[in-house]
Specification:
flat, mainly alpha, 12 helices, about 0% strand, about 270 residues
């Protein structure tokens, strides 16, 4: 019996690995980043006419880090602006500006990022700065919509009871509205980040170092192998990020349910005691 335990444990570990997509997709992503150069014979067989079938100008690891840096900074700016704007238009003083804010932010996303880069690059210089502006504008709408929808989904009774307990508007926002709206807000952030992960590839057209570099060079030089290599890593990166947000959303959903139950118990017990 003791000799049969290690295979069982080994098989159980494999089942856990396969049932957790985030683990094996992360493994695939790391294998693609660090093992792409090992696939040179494969790409050479697929494209024998190419002298350089594998992108070697920069390491895929450095490109991935640069790509993630641009997406992280632009997404952080979009989250800050989108959250503040969403909170502002859901307040009584800012409600009349809601349609204006939504129209302006929606226009920012409908404006093509390539056009933003074309306008910003001559004014700000080539590099990452024009890309940050384009990605920030492009990622605002999902966050704004998620913030508004999340705050509006908070039960009116929770606000009324909080007001009855003497909470200030700021306390209601921080202790009641934002915690209960967190899953919906995170859903908007998730959409924004995934969009920016794919869109950031075009930042290489203005000289920014991203995973779009092999794609742009491959397209301009008719090197399909480069395009495939860059696109595969971008796709895996987006999948891993989406799965990570999915895990976060599940955690927040369970946390919200517990918070809602505790909040209702405390608020109603306090209200009845008065």
């Amino acid at each position: 019996m003791k000799s049969a335990q290690p295979p069982l444990k080994h098989g159980r570990a494999w089942r856990i690995w396969l049932r957790t997509p985030l683990l094996w997709t992360s493994g695939l992503l790391l294998a693609a980043i660090f093992g792409m150069t090992s696939l040179r014979p494969l790409f050479a067989a697929w494209y024998p006419q190419l002298d350089r079938p594998v992108y070697m100008q920069d390491s895929f690891w450095s490109l991935t880090l640069a790509h993630l840096l641009i997406v992280s900074v632009s997404s952080a700016a979009a989250v800050l602006i989108g959250l503040l704007a969403g909170i502002g238009v859901t307040r009584r003083a800012g409600h009349e500006f809601r349609s204006l804010v939504e129209t302006v932010v929606a226009a920012g996303q409908t404006f093509p990022p390539v056009a933003v880069l074309a306008i910003a690059a001559p004014l700000m210089g080539y590099g990452t700065r024009p890309a940050l502006i384009a990605l920030t504008l492009y990622g605002l709408l999902p966050i704004l919509q998620g913030t508004i929808a999340g705050i509006e989904s908070v039960p009116r009774a929770a606000r009324e009871i909080a007001q009855g307990l003497g909470m200030s508007p700021r306390q209601i926002l921080l202790r009641v509205e934002l915690p209960l709206a967190a899953p919906v807000i995170v859903g908007g952030i998730r959409t924004s980040v995934i969009i920016n992960l794919g869109t950031a590839a075009i930042a290489s057209t203005v000289g920014a170092k991203t995973l779009g570099s092999p794609i742009i060079i491959g397209l301009s030089g008719f090197n399909t192998a480069y395009v495939i290599q860059g696109a595969v890593i971008v796709a895996l990166l987006a999948i891993v990020t989406d799965l990570a947000f999915d895990q976060l959303a599940r955690y927040l959903s369970r946390w919200q349910q517990n918070l809602t139950a505790v909040t209702r118990t405390i608020l109603f017990s306090s209200a009845t005691s008065r």
